Amino acid sequence: MVTGLTDRVMNAVATVREDLAAARRRDPAATDDLTVLLTSPGLHAIWTHRVAHRLWARGAKLPAMVVAQGARSLTGVEIHPGAAIGRRFFIDHGMGVVIGETAEVGDDVMLYHGVTLGGRSMERTKRHPTVEDSATIGAGARVIGPVVVGRGAQVGANAVVVKDVPELATAVGVPARVRTGAAHPEVQIDPAIWI
Half-sphere exposure of 190 toward its Cβ, with a 13 Å CA cutoff? Predict the structure, then answer.
């Protein structure tokens, strides 16, 4: 039993270190680990979500919702405990982000403030987006419905996405138009230039 607890603590510490490294890599304002650890609402929301998600998966739905609402009150980020979030997920600034119950977010995804991963159906089915690995979604963007934002894709600031975005493409505008081609940050620094 002690070994199991030790393993869980070591895994949690490794995850926090990994999240801090991801924040430093993506946020030029992240000066050091201690500052990021104490002041990043996006990371606080993600860490709290992991607790809420575990409760949700174990059937403790009310406690999971209470934890999620507490995090929302403290961070300004609302992540439903049913949402599946990958590793090294980073929310820059955080305020106003909403992630719905059936959303799926891959590894190394970055969201800016004001992003909504929302649903458009009242049915109890997959009704929120899937954001694949290494995608970036700009400030104020709305990704609505069971659409897929492909691996390495970018969504420009304030875009409204209601259709799939292929991998390595960029979606901009209202409604979002897809620009194909490399969307890697080093190639297209600012997808908002097409808005």
Answer: 4
